[in-house]
Design brief:
Blueprint (H helix, E strand, L loop, with lengths): L1 H14 L3 E4 L11 H6 L6 E4 L2 E4 L2 E2 L6 E4 L1 H4 L3 H5 E4 L7 E3 L8 E3 L2 E3 L8 E4 L4 E8 L2 E2 L8 E4 L4 E8 L2 E2 L6 E4 L5 E3 L2 E3 L2 E2 L6 E3 L6 E3 L2 E3 L6 E3 L5 E3 L2 E2 L15 E3 L4 E4 L31 H13 L2 E5 L7 E7 L3 E9 L4 E10 L2 E7 L12 E9 L2 E10 L2
Parallel strand pairs: 1-2, 2-5, 3-6, 4-7, 5-8, 6-9, 7-10, 8-11, 9-11, 10-13, 11-14, 12-15, 13-16, 14-17, 14-18, 15-19, 16-20, 17-21, 18-22, 20-23, 21-24, 22-25
Antiparallel strand pairs: 26-27, 28-29, 29-32, 30-31, 30-33, 33-34
């Protein structure tokens, strides 16, 4: 035990950036675990987890730290499916107790096979951030609640989280909220969870008030959402059976393969571009999708739409300083809008919004926003709407 712990501490010193790396190293008589990395951490440290299956139940022990797969540093989403904490059906897989605030983070892992109150994640008087997480196949017994997540006096933040195939014979198959728990759910997919009593997707009781934005709730039994004493605010979400709120829809999300746990959207999904238009754009530069996984339209548009609809869009030079010429080609007279956005998805400049004739057109951008202020160096997106429909999104790079 002592030797394995020293290995973790040496790695944290070598990284020289408050990082603790939890990796599987064959050490005589023992093997490092994620919990060892947590126990060796101090507030603000990060425990990075190599791909693998870790059979254990971890507890943050009131520390404000980050536990993350290497996805945190590589941006390779495959690490989510390769990095698993398996609770072996013995209690909660991950426990957050009093002391954590929004700077405690769980990032980029699969949480599975827990049992009991909060079989997947148990939150008591804590407000952690859960990002890029899959919570699946956790169960609960007769006197338990919240097989996926259980919250009491807790308000975690969930972003790009998938909660699926969790079940309980009691209440709250996916999430159970109790006693003033007010989590925020953004781009979260809650599907195929079940409860014996009520609240297959979410069970909200005892003055709890969660908020949902850009979420998908589908095929949870017996209800998508059960609301006792409390309120649920949902906007721009796809909720089976419907739910009152701006931008909400009630239509099959058309997942790729939900029976086998693939909750990506197919190209015909009604959830594409159906999220809050004021949310940050998806990485492909389009309006936010609903659900945990966005549908990448950029490659599809560039590869297919140009050939079929025959629109063209490019800029030269690229990179540029101080000006670049954006050229577009259309085959018939159309209403054209051409706008520029920063990498956060904020519109900074309207270059064209008019009816124009067929043919090639060019517009010079001088690196200024709509107020005439010079913008800084960085990546910018320019987006072409034809007759109020997004057709092409391209990137340009301003270097100063």
């Amino acid at each position: 035990m002592k030797k394995a712990k020293v290995v973790l501490l040496v790695l944290s010193i070598l990284l020289c950036s408050n990082l603790l790396l939890a990796i599987i190293i064959n050490v005589p008589d023992d093997q490092p675990t994620i919990q060892m990395g947590i126990d060796a951490s101090a507030d603000t440290d990060t425990v990075l987890v190599q791909p693998g299956i870790y059979i254990e139940n971890i507890n943050y022990n009131g520390q404000i730290i980050t536990v993350a797969s290497l996805f945190l540093t590589t941006q390779d989403t495959s690490y989510i499916s390769q990095t698993i904490i398996d609770g072996n059906h013995i209690g909660s897989v991950v426990t957050f107790e009093s002391g954590e605030d929004s700077t405690a983070v769980l990032f980029g892992l699969i949480i599975q096979n827990g049992f009991g109150w909060g079989g997947g994640i148990y939150c008591s008087q804590s407000n952690p951030s859960l990002e890029n997480i899959i919570i699946r196949n956790n169960t609960g017994g007769f006197n338990t609640s919240g097989s996926g997540i259980y919250c009491i006096y807790s308000s975690p933040s969930l972003k790009n989280v998938t909660i699926n195939n969790n079940s309980t014979v009691n209440i709250g198959g996916g999430i159970s909220l109790c006693l003033n728990s007010n989590p925020s759910l953004e781009n979260t997919t809650i599907c195929n969870n079940s409860a014996g009593a009520y609240g297959g997707g979410i069970c909200c009781i005892s003055d709890s008030n969660p908020s949902l934005i850009n979420c998908i709730h589908w095929n949870n039994i017996p209800q998508e959402i059960y609301c006792g004493l409390g309120t649920i605010t949902a906007i721009y979400s796809d909720i089976q059976g419907g739910w009152e709120g701006e931008g909400n829809i009630n239509v099959d999300p058309l997942f790729v393969d939900p029976e086998n746990g693939d909750y990506h959207l197919t190209e015909c999904s009604p959830c594409i571009d159906a999220g809050n238009p004021n949310s940050p754009f998806d990485p492909d530069g389009t309006i936010a999708d609903m659900g945990a996984f966005y549908y990448d339209q950029l490659n599809e548009v560039n590869d297919n739409v140009i050939q079929i609809v025959e629109y063209d869009l490019y800029n030269f030079p690229n990179p540029f300083n101080p000006t670049t010429t954006i050229s577009l080609t259309i085959q018939e007279e159309s209403n054209i809008e051409l706008s520029l956005y920063n990498i956060k998805g904020q519109k900074i400049r309207s270059l064209l919004n008019n009816q124009i004739t067929a043919g090639e057109h060019s517009i010079v951008w001088n690196g200024e926003d709509d107020s005439g202020k010079k913008v800084g160096s960085g990546v910018y997106l320019y987006k072409l709407h034809v007759n109020d429909k997004i057709e092409l999104v391209k990137k340009c790079l301003l270097l100063k």
